[in-house]
Write a structure and sequence with these properties.
Layout: E1 12-14, E2 17-19, H1 24-31, E3 34-35, H2 38-48, H3 53-56, E4 60-64, H4 66-74, E5 80-85, H5 93-109, E6 113-117, H6 119-125, H7 131-147, E7 155-159, H8 164-176, H9 180-187, H10 195-199, H11 201-205, H12 210-215, E8 221-226, H13 230-240, E9 249-253, H14 280-288, H15 298-304, H16 312-321, H17 325-337, H18 342-367
Parallel strand pairs: 5-6, 5-8, 6-7, 8-9
Antiparallel strand pairs: 1-2, 3-4, 4-9
Helix pairs in contact: 6-7, 7-18, 9-13, 14-18, 16-18
The protein binds tryptophan.
């Protein structure tokens, strides 16, 4: 997005690149999305009961048409959930955040999930990756999704290359209605962009609409995803009604920071990312080397306190590993007052992470026996 580059040299947020310190308020303005207001949260709470921590903590902070979807739901029209993954490498903890939230929505609303594995997209945009790689990662990444506890009855995984026959007619309808100038403005395509990539956004639009083709039922899609995917939905929303569908709605989350000094967790920086396959000693090493808001010496920290707002370790508790608001607050205050040292937080986080990963890895192994039950062509 060129527009999100202005006035802030550091920030770049596009579906293919996230760089610098992300200013989420500015993304809401630049992308033209809505913030999630206290009123909207009340509405969600009325239907789902206690708010999920990711909503309460504004990890999901922005939306398009969430209110519309909830109003329809109130009146008896359900929706489908749609999210996805570009299978270009192993899954890290940051990828799990929107998936965990999606599972929560699926359970609370009792709705279907379409999950797109964009092996084609990753092949087209990355010179170093071939179709065998993206196919392999599609399989590997699907195991991570299933390990979170999605049920096969309500979960439909689409592997783009394998399932293209299911997608192609809708993709054509979409592609015919998006001009090159719109695509160029939305995605920043250049003269040297390969033509596969230019057509490709039509494929990411398809799961917004596929439910009708499969079931005859026309329902809106609600897409939980990190905000970098928004350009796809902008172009899709413009053409949805022309094709007789609801405009897809979105709910956007922030990026889990990496363990370094800034920027999101990224598979291209493995030392600052925790992968779901990481072994306990590796997790320990990465956390031990993580960037914190601590002071150079323990004595100084005890005296003047530390700064949790720049601490990657604190972010992990905030995003995923401390669901109890009171306990999170206690940690925050103790840190500021110098009553807790970075070593203690790191030790606790290593324990929690490794406990989570041990269970996840077990469930992931079991997922190998059932993965076929989740395939859209089951
Ligand atoms: N383009 C996404 C990616 O790289 C994958 C994706 C496809 C997706 N459909 C989606 C992500 C829907 C979120 C929601 O990573």
């Amino acid at each position: 997005m060129e527009s999100s580059n202005n006035n802030n040299e550091d920030m770049v947020v596009t579906p293919w690149e996230v760089k610098g310190k992300v200013d989420y308020e500015r993304l809401i303005r630049d992308f033209g999305t809505q913030s999630i207001t206290p009123e909207l949260l009340k509405k969600v709470e009325k239907i789902t009961g206690k708010l999920h921590p990711q909503l309460k903590r504004h990890i999901f902070f922005s939306h398009r048409d969430l209110d519309t979807v909830l109003n329809l739901y109130d009146k008896g029209t359900k929706f489908v959930l749609y999210t996805g993954r570009g299978p270009s490498g192993p899954v890290h903890i940051g990828h799990l955040i929107p998936w965990i939230f999606t599972l929560h929505l699926q359970k609370k609303f009792g709705v279907r999930l379409y999950f797109q594995m964009t092996d084609d997209e990753k092949f087209l945009i990355d010179d170093k990756i071939d179709l065998q790689d993206t196919k392999k990662y599609s399989y590997e990444n699907a195991l991570d999704l299933i390990a979170l506890g999605f049920k096969p009855e309500d979960t439909f995984i689409i592997y783009d290359v394998e399932d293209i026959d299911l997608l192609y007619d809708i993709a054509l309808e979409v592609a015919k209605r998006i001009t090159y100038s719109t695509a160029k403005a939305s995605f920043g395509f250049k003269d040297n962009t390969n033509i596969g990539w230019i057509f490709w956004p039509a494929i990411q639009a398809v799961p917004c609409f596929i439910h009708k083709k499969l079931t005859g039922e026309n329902l809106p899609a609600l897409i939980p995803a990190a905000i970098d995917q928004d350009p796809y939905w902008r172009v899709t929303r413009d053409i949805a009604q022309k094709l007789g569908y609801f405009k897809p709605a979105q709910i956007h989350c922030r990026f889990l920071p990496g363990l370094g000094t800034g920027g999101k967790m990224s598979a291209s920086k493995p030392e600052t990312s925790i992968f779901t396959h990481d072994k306990p000693e590796i997790v320990k090493r990465k956390i031990w080397n993580a960037y914190t808001g601590g002071k150079p010496t323990a004595a100084e920290q005890r005296k003047t306190g530390a700064n949790p707002s720049i601490c990657s370790i604190y972010q992990y508790f905030f995003y995923l590993f401390e669901e109890d608001d009171k306990k999170l607050d206690v940690r925050l205050n103790k840190c500021r007052k110098g009553e807790i040292l970075c070593g203690e937080c790191k030790k606790e986080l290593v324990q929690r992470l490794n406990m989570f990963l041990r269970e996840h890895q077990e469930k992931r192994e079991k997922a190998k026996d059932v993965i076929e039950q989740y395939h859209i062509k089951r």
